[in-house]
Structure formats: structure tokens, C-alpha cells
Amino acid sequence: MGLIQELAGHPLTQQFQTLGLGTQVAIGFTTFIVLSVVLNVIGQLLPTNSNEPPLVFHWFPFIGSTVTYGMDPPTFFKENRAKFGDVFTFVLLGKKTTVAMGPSGNDFVLNGKLKDVCAEEIYTVLTTPVFGKDVVYDCPNAKLMEQKKFMKIALTTEAFRSYVPIISHEVTDYFKRCADFKGKSGVVDIPKRMAEITIFTASHALQGSIIRNKFDVSLAALYHDLDMGFTPVNFMLHWAPLPWNRKRDHAQRTVAKTYMDTIVERRAMGDADKELDMMKHLMNSTYKNGTKVPDHEVAHMMIALLMAGQHSSSSTSSWIMLRLAQYPHIMEELYQEQVKVLGADLPPLKYEDLAKLPLNQAIIKETLRLHAPIHSIMRAVKSPMPVPGTKYVIPTSHTLLAAPGVSASDPAYFPNPDAWDPHRWEVDSPNAPTIIRNAVVEDEEKIDYGYGLVSKGSASPYLPFGAGRHRCIGEHFANLQLQTIVAETVRHYKFRNVDGGNTLIGTDYASLFSRPLEPANIHYEERD
Ligand code: HEM
Ligand SMILES: *[C@@H]1O[C@H](CO)[C@@H](O)[C@H](O)[C@H]1NC(C)=O
Ligand SMILES: *[C@@H]1O[C@H](CO)[C@@H](O)[C@H](O)[C@H]1NC(C)=O
What we know:
By secondary structure, the chain is an alpha+beta fold. 53% of the residues lie in helices and 10% in strands. The chain contains 20 helices and 14 strands. It has helices at 3-9, 11-17, 21-45, 66-71, 73-84, 102-110, 120-131, 141-154, 157-177, 190-227, 234-237, 243-269, 278-283, 295-326, 328-342, 351-354, 358-370, 404-408, 436-442, 475-492; strands spanning 87-92, 95-100, 117-118, 185-189, 377-381, 385-386, 393-394, 399-402, 446-448, 453-455, 493-497, 507-508, 515-516, 521-526. A hairpin with a 6-residue loop joins strand 6 and strand 7 (393-394). Helix 10 crosses helix 12 and helix 10 (190-227) runs antiparallel to helix 14. The longest helix is centred in the middle third of the chain and has 38 residues, at 190-227. It is globular and about 95 Å long.
């Protein structure tokens, strides 16, 4: 007798058939889940292709390690690094994702060759509906390199000189009109305030005063809607006709139109327009083949730049303020540094002043070491990639992931790594980084991917702005913006934790860019 007939005649089968349909479905479904869990676990226990990196154990197929990774990526990386070493694979939403850590892992992923790794394949589903067509990850890499060149050229010393007073003024003005800072002292939820300060300062400096003024009226709310396109579930649901996606699409069209109208308006102004913002420069840029950058591309690049800068800078400035509230004596040192270097009357800040304030600079460096807003950088694998110094070959079915934040808090490179100590960036500090001093020499070799010279080697433990062809072009602007915001804030206020202690709030990893959990309240007191 065949197996099927035997099963059909089996008393258990006959019993099953007498059950209600609901129960039959429930039993069938449970059996399916149990079987797939069992097969998934057996699959992991069987000897695998020994050229593939070790796989993080997980109970459920597809879900894999998505939840443990998603709740706290740095802890997930550190725990598995302790088990497997610098290279291992985990399942993220059904996709085998290979992490490469440490300075050589950073180099492997971020300096990957164009034929081996691809960023746009991963990011485009999220970014294109938000930024719009034909820019950044919705075009060939060579075109992105040209677009980054235009952006980088716009950021001249002359432009930077004009940005410091603009930013200073925006910050001072914000403190004056913000209801939360009305009293001589009080409590304020700092990330909300920093998000606004960041958008007003960045839009004014990079996009000009016409656009800046529209943020008081309509643009802020529209950018809020655009932001909702950046939730991680949209890696899967970017296409879905859901309320937040409809709002995103409407906001993208409306914001792009606002920029395009402003471009026309500013062209008409001609020489009367004296501002040195990024938009003005992009409006007047020409691709190598002689084609002028079309207005819709300028508009879409404006959205991309504001989004890239907004989340990273506002998260960083929030962490800085929370760290200053945690350690008020450092905030006092920052104030005294300005008094000593610039004079007790504290004249208006100038671009040249920033270079004279080393502690003010170190605050940003140290905060980015422990609170880099981008915890995971991903690439699609386009051809099998042997990992140098190992037997591993990463197949094209995997995604590659770099996490430079892990090496930035590794005791091998940063003594006492969990201490937020801005003084560690002074050469004679006991906490001074052990490797950076040598790395400076190694890094001197430069390469141009099409947007200007950048360090060739990226085997560094400290890369908050990434490396290679996708490296940040906003680093110098972000530093200028953050240094100016910190210097102005220190002139106005003394911060401390609300309870007077020195605890620090946890990190929120639920959106694409990590940031402080909210509310994150601090106590402020006006300086006399
Ligand atoms: C504290 C602030 C910032 C941090 C920590 C930061 C970090 C980064 C990182 C890690 C990357 C590499 C991403 C990758 O390899 O996939 C990147 C790329 C980039 N960032 Fe920033 N960024 C900051 C501010 C800014 C600002 C203010 C702007 C604009 C003015 C900006 C514009 C860009 C652009 C255009 C790219 C290139 C993307 C690519 O080539 O794929 N960033 N940034
Ligand atoms: C010139 O190059 C740009 C950027 O790559 C591209 O968008 C455009 O279509 C090209 N124009 C022509 C006429 O080939
Ligand atoms: C635009 O670019 C051209 C040449 O690329 C230059 O001569 C001109 O001065 C620029 N105009 C502005 C307003 O920057």
C-alpha cells in the first residue's frame, strides 16, 4: 500500500477529518510554523559551506535576528563579535547580512570597489520617494559623484565665513522667542529644541533666506511628513498605499515645487542675490557633458541635503547638550575657553574664532565617537568578495554591513572607551586614542572618486562620517554648524540634569538615525 493511502486510512487522519474547519486550519498553521522552525534550526546545525562566515543562531526563519539587532544594534554587534570575531552573518528580514567590524572591516565595506558593492540598491526604496527622481540613489553612481562634487565646491571658506554669523544669529534669536526658554531658569525637552535650531540654521545657511523664511510657515510641517518616509518598516512597505506614504508623496511634490519656484525667483534677481548658499551654487552647475543641472534635480538635492544634515546634526547636538547637562563642569570650561581666547566681552563669533577653541571642537569629536547617528552602513554585494586574511567569501546573495561605531568604542583604540571625555583628544591625555596618531600618517594617501580628494585608506577605528566614495561631504559644514551652536548655547546658559545627578538617557534606535530617547529633559539657567 502507498504512503498516501496508508495515511488516509490512519485513525488519526480520520479523527482529524471530524474536527471543525477552524480547528483544522489552526492545526495546519501550527504544524507549518513548527516545521519551518525545525527545518530552520536543522539547517543551521548542519555543516555549511565553510567559506561563509558564521551565522548568528535564530529560531524563526525570515525574522532571524531582526528584533535583537533592531532593539540595540551596538550591543548586538559587540555580543556577536565576542562569539565569532569581526566577521559574521545574521538574518535581517529574510536577508543574510554579513557584518565586518574593526578598522579592516570598515575598510572592506566602505572602500569596496564599484564592481563589488552597491549602496543605491539598498537605499533607493527609502530615499527616492522622499528626495525625488534623478538624484543621489536614483541615478548611476557616476552621476552621484558629480552631484557630490557640486555640493562640495559650494562649501568654500568664503561661504563658511558667511555662515557663522547666520547660524549665531539664528541660535540667539531662537532662544529669545522660544517659549520653553522664557524664564531665568527652567526645564526643557532638549531634542525638540535642537531639531528646530538645526533646521533653521541649516536651511538658512545652505538654502538661503527665502527658503529659511518658509520654514516658519509651511515647510516645517511638510518636512515632518517627508520624514515619515524614513521609518525602517518602509524598507518593506515603501510602495504601500498607506496614509503615511500618501502624506510623504504629497509633501515631496509640494516641497520640490517650492524649491523650483524659488529657483525661478532667484534667477530673476540676478546679481542682486548676494547670498552664498548651496542652492545658489547648484542652480549654476553644469555636468561634465555640458548639460546644466535641471531645476528639479536642484530641488531634489536640496531635500536630500536637508534630510541628511537634519537627522545627523540634530541628534548630535542633542547628545552634546545632554552630555553638558551630565557634566556641568565641562560646560563651564567651554565658557572659560571663550572668555580666555576671545575676550571677556565675548564679541560676535567669527569663522576664524572656531579654530581657536580646541575644547569646543573636541566636544563634537568625542560626542560623535560615542553617539554616531548612523550605526549601520549597508551595501549590496555585486560579486563574490573574499575577506582579506580569512577563508571567507561573501556571496552575492548577502548584504554587507559596516558599523564604525563599534571600533570607535573599542578599548583597543580608545582607553576607557565608555567615558565621554573630550580631553582625550589632547595629545598628552591618559585616554588619548592609541592608534589615531599613527593612522594620520597612513591616511595621507588621497584618492578622488569624482568629488574631490578624500583619504584612500579607511582602515581607521574612528569614521563617524564614513569613508570611500560615499563619504560625507557635509562634515565641515556639520562641524561649523555644531561648533557655532555649542559656542552660542554656552554663552547663554548653564545646564544640569533635572535631578542634579549625572545619569544619561538611553538611545532610541527605532528610526534610521539613532538619537536620545524622548523626553530628554534638562535644567537650564541663564548666565548673568
Ligand atoms: C554630524 C553630522 C553628520 C554625520 C555624522 C554624517 C555621517 C555620514 C555618513 C556616515 C555618511 C556615509 C553613508 C554611507 O556610506 O552610506 C554620510 C554621507 C553623506 N552625507 Fe553626511 N553626516 C553628517 C552631516 C551631513 C550634512 C550636514 C550634510 C549636508 C550638508 C551631509 C550630506 C551627506 C551626503 C551628501 C552624503 C553622501 C551619500 C553618498 O555618497 O552615498 N551630511 N554622512
Ligand atoms: C549629461 O550627464 C547628466 C549626468 O550624468 C545626465 O543626467 C544627462 O542626461 C547627460 N546629458 C546628455 C545629453 O547626455
Ligand atoms: C555661474 O557660473 C558661471 C560659469 O560656470 C560663472 O561665470 C558665473 O559667475 C556664475 N554665476 C553665479 C551667479 O555664480
